[in-house]
Structures are given as structure tokens and as C-alpha cells.
Specification:
Structural class: alpha/beta
Distance between the termini: 121 Å
Largest sheet: 5 strands, mixed, barrel
Strand order of the largest sheet: 2-3-5-8-7
Number of domains: 2
Number of strands: 9
CATH architecture of the largest domain: Beta Barrel
Helix content: 10-25%
CATH class of the largest domain: Mainly Beta
Shape: elongated
Strand content: 25-35%
Length: 216
Amino acid sequence: MNLKPAVKHALNILPLGLLALIAWLFARNASAPTPEAATETKAVPAKAAPPVPAVPQVNLDRYTPFDFSEVFKLPAGPKGFEYTDKINSLAGGPVRMEGFMVRHLHDDHEVFLFATFPVLLNQKEYGLADDLPANAVHVRMETPKGQAPAWTKEKLLVCGQLDIGPRQEQDGRISHVRLRADMILRASDRTPVDLLRPIVLQPERVNSSLSASAAQ
């Protein structure tokens, strides 16, 4: 059997086969994903940040600005402290005042003392012979049973109904100026502030016999 023609034919078609094999391998590699592409994670769109709640707008126009310096005529005359014409004209109406809560023992769980500057009273040591300014205001709030306004060092803006005239308070003091609070805001940004806390968590009130009984 003569194999030469067959071998010759095979040698002739071998380059074509190799070229076809190389072309197939190249096409296969081109269509296969690269290692980088295989490991690349699909980008996930970032979630939008939740909208920042808008600061509630408080209408203060109906409250007349009133300052502690406008409570009494200065200097005091022979009759002692006398109300100014302005406070007499505003009595019974809505006013707003800026100041600080007085830190002291409380006998009335609906009331806190309010002054033009920060004050700390030591009633156990001095009783009512303390440094409370004469123009301090008794602020009265509506409070649920077992709760009371808690002291804060922040400057506050109290909006409410103005009441004047001497009146005996539960702690033995004679109040001359009172505010029945409609709302209490931070003076810095005019946003509402919640002062109510359980009485049992307030040492200044727990140590007061009247407030302790109110917490029961």
C-alpha cells in the first residue's frame, strides 16, 4: 500500500487545521470573562439619605416681648417695689420672656422659678432668705400626675399668659409675677423643648415633701 500520497495530503491540510484551532481558541478566550470582570461586583445604587425633618415654625407674633427689667420701677421708691406701667398694661395677656430656670427644691410639681440669669438656691441652709431676684417669675405648667418640669441649664423662651399681684405659693414664697406657660422653647433656635420628667428621677423634687407625695 502506497502511503506517500496520503501523508502528503495530511501535511498539506495540517497548517489549515492548526490555523482553525488557533482561531477557535482566540475566539473562545475573547468571549470568556476576564478574572477582573468575573470578580467585579455590580454597583448598587446608594440609598438616598432620609430627609431632615423641618424645624417646626412657631408663631410668636401674638406674644408681646417682655423683659425682667420691666417688672418693677427702678430704683425702688418709698413704697418699695412698684409695677411698671408696661407690666400693668400687659397683665392678663400673652407675653414671652427669655431667661433661665432656677435650680432649687420644688414644693409644687407644676411650677418652676424663672430668672434673668442662672440661680442656684440652697433652701436647706438659708430657707427663703436666699438670693432669688425680686423680679423672678413663677412659671406654671400643665403636668401629668407623677411628672414635673425638670431643671435645664439652657436659656429658655417662655410664652404664656401674664398674671401679676402678690400671692402665697406652696413653698411659702410670695409670688408677684406669674406665667401660665403655653409653650416653652429654646431661646437659641426657637425650637420646642420638653421639660417634663418623672418626679422620682428629680432629686430637687424628691427631697420636697409635697412633691414626693405628688409622685405617689
